[in-house]
Write a structure and sequence with these properties.
This protein is 37% helix and 21% strand. It has 497 residues and is of the alpha/beta class. Strands 7-8-10-9-13-17-14-15 form an eight-stranded mixed β-sheet, sandwiched between helices. α3 packs across α4 and α8 (231-237) runs antiparallel to α11 (351-364). The two termini are 30 Å apart. The chain binds ligand BES and zinc ion (2 copies). Residues 271, 273, 348, 350 line the site of one zinc ion (ZN). One zinc ion binds next to β9.
Length: 497
């Protein structure tokens, strides 16, 4: 995309569409006078008649073809009271703008930055939020309809109507654009049908990413996992005719490989539940059980683009969870890579077994901090709903600094407790060190707490995205389907930590 660094005026912008914010108190908007001069009495008339409204999230489009040869329309965007407008409000509003631009098949547009600025949100922030919001709103789910002959629309150029520094604004937009594109790629991974995304495919995707961004990459295949004794991921894979993969990416930006942030992702490409089979209604959608892996890969894409001065290792355990004569069973006792044994009480609690080995491997690869991301339990949905990511931690300080990143990105995370009593129940088994399903009550905590057993003393945060990874309905920032949740927060965390 060509991101213009040259400041434009309303009349000099060479685009199809100009986007303008309308705040409730127009007299508080920077530069409103210059703009209203341009439109003259027509603008006042539109406002008086209610044609243009400042109602938050209201979009209004007007054909304007007399200004220059390229301009076709102006889209006005209601913002409500400027003083109460938050960055998240603005991001979501831009999401709606993105959807509108997609529907209009817009290839290029200009944003009048000052019209969206408030006392606390500067022009450069507006540019970032616009790139993020519009980029995410623009996303549509790839489909396989044979009747579809529609060409996908791409925005190839954007311009800014602003008095702020053009270079700074463009740079800020560029980063927002990177964030949105990474989210959209993660969404597409989640949306891929399970026959089109096996563990091998996911590993190939990671290899491509590594090539693109010069990451160190290692893919462990089934034979190698067997050699290493990764009994967690291997037992989940036992019923499958598809091979499992343990995927590792390393990004090194410090001289020494120390002070390493570790991302660990659940990459279950399909979860039937195994012998503890899922009811038919809850099996549909389990192609998205690799949402944690997608979040980690999306974050790595941003890191590859923005190249923060940090060391990061990403480990993804990938397999499907199938039924067959060779599948693992409830009552099996398995040995994980850490050496810890697990009594399997429920083969549908498979994510924690895959993550167990991935956590140990991440530690071995030098991770000093661990963040695991997983569509781990239905319990988190019962506890927090579909719009909040559930968290656990063993380290307050680490968690607090992570939460700062969520404030920046607007992704809601809520921490649940993990008590000694909870840990006791995870460790309760007559046959093994741990059991993988202590009970239904508060089982988000048991799921995450089980993963935490493999963090041991390393500062650790668990993110259960079972509710947030897949949207059941369209939302301001995108369509139904994969959301790419945590892509932005993981990346923002690395940049700021
Ligand atoms: N992949 C599921 C969790 C899930 C549920 C993800 C809904 C997305 C939407 C996970 O492997 C699972 O089946 N968890 C069980 C655990 C239980 C058997 C202890 C669950 O939450 O019911
Ligand atoms: Zn499961
Ligand atoms: Zn699962």
């Amino acid at each position: 995309m060509n991101i213009g660094t040259e400041n434009k005026t309303f009349a000099s912008a060479t685009v199809e569409t100009i986007i303008i914010g309308v705040q409730k108190h127009r007299e508080q908007m920077k530069n409103w006078s210059a703009f209203s001069e341009f439109f003259g009495s027509a603008l006042d008339e539109w406002i008086r008649s209610g044609e243009i409204s400042s109602d938050r999230k209201k979009l209004m489009k007007f054909p304007v073809t007399t200004v220059n040869e390229t301009l076709k329309r102006v889209v006005f965007v209601g913002l409500g009271e400027g003083k109460t407008l938050t960055e998240e409000n603005l991001r979501e509003t831009f999401g709606l703008v993105g959807k509108e631009l997609k529907a209009l098949k817009v290839n290029n547009y200009a944003i009048w930055l000052e019209s969206f600025a408030t006392p606390t949100i500067e022009e450069t922030d507006v540019a970032f939020l616009a790139a993020e919001g519009i980029g995410m709103g623009f996303y549509t789910v790839p489909n396989y309809k044979t009747s579809s002959n529609e060409q996908d629309t791409y925005v190839d150029r954007v311009e800014f109507i602003t008095e702020a520094n053009g270079e700074e604004v463009a740079a800020s937009f560029e980063v927002g654009h990177i964030y949105a594109q990474a989210v959209n790629e993660a969404r597409s991974l989640v949306n891929l049908p399970p026959n089109m995304l096996t563990a091998t495919d996911l590993a190939n995707y990671a290899v491509d990413l590594a090539k693109q961004y010069d990451f160190e990459v290692e893919i462990l295949d089934k034979a190698q996992l067997e050699e290493l004794g990764m009994g967690g991921i291997l037992s989940v894979n036992q019923g499958s005719s598809e091979e499992p993969r343990m995927i590792t990416l390393k990004y090194q930006a410090k001289d020494k490989w120390e002070d390493v942030v570790g991302f660990v992702g659940k990459g279950v490409t399909y979860d039937t539940g195994g012998y503890s089979l899922k009811p038919r209604e809850s099996m549909v959608g389990m192609k998205g059980d690799m949402g944690g892996a997608a979040a980690v890969l999306g974050a790595m894409k941003i890191i590859g683009e923005t190249r923060p001065k940090r060391n990061v290792v990403a480990v993804i355990g990938s397999t499907d969870n199938m039924v067959s004569g060779t599948a693992f069973k409830p009552d099996d006792v398995i040995t994980t890579y850490s050496g810890k044994t697990v009594e399997v009480l429920n083969t549908d609690a498979e994510g924690r077994l895959v993550l167990a080995d991935a956590m140990t491997y991440a530690k071995q690869q030098g991770a000093n901090y661990l963040i695991d991301v997983a569509t781990l339990t239905g319990g988190v949905i019962v506890a927090l709903g579909m719009d909040k990511t559930g968290a656990l931690t063993n380290n307050e300080e680490f968690f607090e600094s992570f939460m700062e990143a969520t404030v920046e990105t607007g992704e809601f995370v809520w921490r649940l407790p993990l008590t000694e009593k909870d840990k006791k129940r995870i460790r309760k088994s007559d046959l093994a060190d741990l059991n993988n399903s202590p009970g239904r009550d508060g089982h988000m905590i048991f799921g995450g707490g089980f993963v935490g057993e493999f963090a041991e003393d390393t500062p650790w945060i668990h993110l259960d995205i079972a509710g947030t990874s897949d949207a059941t309905a369209p939302h301001d920032l995108g369509p139904k389907g994969g959301t790419g949740v945590m892509v932005r927060t993981l990346a923002a965390f690395v940049e700021q930590f």
